[in-house]
Amino acid sequence: MFRGVDTVDRTTLPHMTAPVPYVFLPGTAREALHFYAGVFGCSVQLHTLGDFGRTDGPPEAIAHGVLSDGPITLYAADATGDQRALRCEGMLLSLLGTAPPDTLREWFQKLAEGGQVVDDLQGRSWGATDGQVIDRYGVQWLIGYEADETS
């Protein structure tokens, strides 16, 4: 323990399994979350600025949205006020081995619709298959699986 640092009782803190992306989009959060729900088979929960009594943007703008009841967790909102909208450079969301290969191939194709394939899904010299795609909302994804995984 460091001198001068209070002890934290970690048993009272919520358990987190991994960081969850939260993206601010340029007025497209509603559309994007419904698109991702269709890709990943999730439900969408949306709350508008009006729902929260906020006046820093149009009342129908999304203040907080989340994918739920599916294999992917993602939060999104419309950028308002001085918030900057997503600009993805030097980072991607990884779905390596997160589902069976057939599912990962399907996700890759769906995410590519209206987006851009950066590196097609293909076998690699180290035995894995992977590829990268930037979806229509500017989010870059790395999707792949090991050669010995079955469909």
From TrEMBL:
InterPro entries referenced in this protein's UniProt entry, alphabetically: Glyas_Bleomycin-R_OHBP_Dase
Lineage: Bacteria, Bacillati, Actinomycetota, Actinomycetes, Micrococcales
Protein name per Swiss-Prot or TrEMBL: PhnB protein
